[in-house]
Amino acid sequence: MMNTKLAIFAALAYASSLASCSSGLAPVAKDAVVPTIVTEQTEFDTDDPAIWIHPTDPSKSLIVGTDKEVGGGLYVYDLNGKIVNKVTGLERPNNVDIAYGLEVNGKKVDIAIATERKAHKIRVFSLPDLTPMDNGGIPIFEGETGEGEREGMGISIYTKKDSINSTIYAIVGRKTGPSGSYLWQYKIHAGADGVVKGEVVRKFGTYSGKKEIEAIAVDNELGYVYYSDETVGVRKYHADPDRKDDQEIAFFAQNDVKSDHEGIAIYKTGDSTGYILLSNQQNNSFVVYHREGANGNRNLHEKLADIPVSAVECDGAEATSINLGGKFPKGMLVAMSNGKVFHYYDWNLIQERIDRAEGR
């Protein structure tokens, strides 16, 4: 891999040239936040990242990202952006998320779960080794017959914990589907044979019909799921299927982006505080909201800042506040960018812009 500075300059040069010739796309702003690390390139087209936190040494944490094309796959990067593992030959993997501690024959296993769009499946791989655990995949949206209604796109994991056990759920979106049952929620578990399976436990989610729903993010501690209804806004629901409550509890960001509402990342500063970051895709920026809401209303999410970044047309994003050591003492924001790469942003750089917006 080229050294970090050269990687950054190369990515920015590519971004600027691409932005200037893309119809309707704002160029990268002169005051855009510069990535701390730019990853090595994939073969086709990056789309969505997830962050796996190493159980004993956070400096050995990894980024898992999709390469979205038929023949693409999952790529694993270290914190220097170097590709350290990959699995390819998948049928257009779209989005990915991570779950910790799935019980498999008495052992706890961390897993990456990705949508395999053209195969109409979700795929499950152990971490950090990327060993497949699903016997070829878990079928999704079975029984749906409309064009694109079985093409899985977005995915996010909700882990429900009690005093003894944890239950892992995958919330999956698709290219298109009916309003009210656009998202399907699957209980993820391993059989006696060690093969991971999925069971539909819930169907929910309002859909405008304007474009599609791809970006999904779960706030596990607060029990919320957010998803981007592209060109329309961000919708918020409870994540726990046992609540039997499928009513939308917030709908925000309707007027805050240039066109597409895309990747959603959640940065946590406490048990209930922090930020929700939304990719303002055609503006090459992230709109920021308070995680805890505003004016004492936890479901009132008003725009706090719109931060220009160097990532071009960002689809997927992820954030962590864990001290990863080295260049990321307060965690990072990971953003997909055109050019077959992901950008890692030292959170301190993002926080500076948020503080500036709040007058601090």
From TrEMBL:
Tell me where on the tree of life, at the top rank, the source sits. Bacteria
- The protein's name: Phytase
- What sequence ranges are listed for the domain BPP? 18-354
A GO molecular-function annotation: inositol hexakisphosphate 3-phosphatase activity
Q: Any idea which UniProt keywords this protein has?
A: Signal
Which InterPro entries does the record cross-reference, listed alphabetically? 6-blade_b-propeller_TolB-like (IPR011042), B-propeller_Phytase (IPR003431)
According to its UniProt entry, this protein's organism is: Sphingobacterium deserti
PROSITE patterns per the record?
BP_PHYTASE (PS51662), PROKAR_LIPOPROTEIN (PS51257)
Where is the signal peptide, in residue numbers?
1-21
